[in-house]
Design brief:
Blueprint lengths: L1 E3 L2 E2 L5 H14 L4 E3 L2 E2 L9 H15 L5 E11 L2 H13 L4 E5 L8 H6 L2 E4 L7 H20 L6
Parallel strand pairs: 1-3, 1-6, 2-4, 5-6, 5-7
Length: 155
């Protein structure tokens, strides 16, 4: 199974970039992870809606071959780490080859991305930057893989 997590812009905070790289390495022990970096839209004289729409085009282009897409949004369902592990395990057994996770930019996801998603998940009721969300998602996916494998990381 392969996970595709397109990133809107480079991770600017070095401590987050290091953590993202570390969790990507750890995750690649269990499954393939790709993190293509897309062009982040600039704010100059552009509305948030126009930025979200432009970013949506890029995100949706990345997901054309995905078997299943998950959007991260505060209004999505909240799951525990164990439930996420169960979902990952189920998707693997269903033979889903490519799963795409959508993380919005600084202004969130466009409605077209939310409509394309097969599932909408919330990582928290709290608000995180999109760069922090990358790291949190990767850590939780790694945690889910260790739960499935029966490793001690989760305990």
């Amino acid at each position: 199974m392969k996970l595709l997590i397109p990133l809107l812009g480079k991770t600017k905070e070095s401590f987050l970039d290091s953590a993202i790289r570390e969790y990507t390495i750890r995750l690649n022990r269990f499954l393939t992870v790709e993190l293509p970096v897309l062009r982040e839209q600039r704010r100059r004289k552009t509305t948030d809606e126009a930025i979200r729409a432009a970013e949506a085009v890029q995100l949706l282009e990345q997901a054309t071959t995905a078997n299943f897409c998950i959007a991260l949004d505060p209004k999505g369902i909240s799951v525990t780490s164990e439930e996420l592990a169960g979902m990952l395990n189920r998707w693997r057994h269903q033979g889903l080859g490519l799963i795409c996770f959508f993380i919005g930019g600084y202004s969130g996801l466009h409605s077209s991305v939310l409509h394309r998603a097969d599932q909408i998940l919330s990582l928290s009721h709290l608000t995180f930057t999109h760069e922090m969300t990358r790291m949190i998602l990767l850590e939780q996916l790694y945690r889910a893989c260790t739960i499935i494998a029966g490793h001690n990381y989760h305990k």
